[in-house]
Amino acid sequence: MAKIIGGVATTHVPSIGQAIAENKQKDPYWQPFFRGFDFVHDWLARERPDAAVVFYNDHGLNFFLDKLPTFAVGAAEAYRNEDEGWGIPVSRSIAGDPALSWHLINALVADEFDITMCQDMLIDHAVTIPMALMWPGQNWQGIKIVPISINTVQHPLPSMARCFKLGRSIGRAIETYEQDLRVMIVGTGGLSHQLDGKRAGFINKEFDQLCLDKITNEPEILTKYSVHELVAEAGAQGVEFLNWMAMRGALPGRVSQVHRNYHIPISNTAAATIVLENHPEPRLKAA
């Protein structure tokens, strides 16, 4: 049976990709952020995941305002990245796992989630930058992904509670998958930031710390925030925290936070990284 080993959540700011391309990881501006991944690299080397379910938000590469699903699940053999106009290099493709994807899709529909099924799906920096942070040099050949896009762009947005429930459905489905896989969950984006309007440059460190404090053991507290409250506290683009909530929801066991890094600012964004380990509850044997 598949096993969920834990989750990683981190920001996906495009300028990180440029910093990687220009080898600026040790520059004073960037070092506090990149240093936070030393633990992540050691954790991945030890845990050796086979697959990653990646909750992210598309920025117009795959979907746009004229056609923007609330939830979209990839079911492709591979996922390509294309030029997004940020000036960052195009990443190599990442392998998919269609069998796992369809297992999750069937489970989501059975749980009454209305989703878009994508047998051809582009991935943007919200996937490729976290992957490059976790596997430097794009050395991700040994892992397959299932990307799940959550709308954080066009209102109405799904609620914190709904995204948490989406993760719960994914977590239950993975636990019933019969292949012997070690699966990690990834949430990308945020934390607090606003890129436009009167509050451009807005960062709310106090709210970010609250989210980091509560997401491990008290995520239900965070589900009580409405989308409008989330925008007020985290900024218009800080709603990417919805991806973090889905990641946390997909960890069904006893969860412990084993790593946490917070640094501000990275390109007007509160950049954070956490690693959560999932300790499955013992399964009852049939009488």
Question: What does this 3D model show about the protein?
Answer:
By secondary structure, the protein is α/β, with parallel strands linked by helices. The protein has a single domain, classed as Protocatechuate 4,5-dioxygenase, Chain B (3-Layer(aba) Sandwich). Helix content is 32%, strand content 20%. The protein contains 10 helices and 10 strands. The strands form 2 sheets. The chain has an 8-stranded mixed β-sheet with strand order 6-3-7-2-8-1-10-9, sandwiched between helices. Strand 9 and strand 10 form a beta hairpin. The chain is globular and about 45 Å long.
CATH class: Alpha Beta
Major sheet: arrangement of strands? 6-3-7-2-8-1-10-9
Q: Report the portion of residues in β strands.
A: 15-25%
**Quick check: average pLDDT?**
94
Number of helices: 10
Q: Encode the helix/strand succession as letters.
A: EHHHEEEEHEHEHEHHHHEE
Q: What topology does this entry show?
A:
Elements: E1 3-10, H1 14-21, H2 31-34, H3 38-47, E2 51-56, E3 71-74, E4 78-79, E5 94-95, H4 98-110, E6 116-118, H5 125-134, E7 144-150, H6 160-175, E8 182-188, H7 205-214, H8 219-222, H9 227-234, H10 241-249, E9 254-263, E10 271-279
Parallel strand pairs: 1-8, 2-7, 2-8, 3-6
Antiparallel strand pairs: 1-10, 3-7, 4-5, 9-10
Helix pairs in contact: 4-6, 6-10
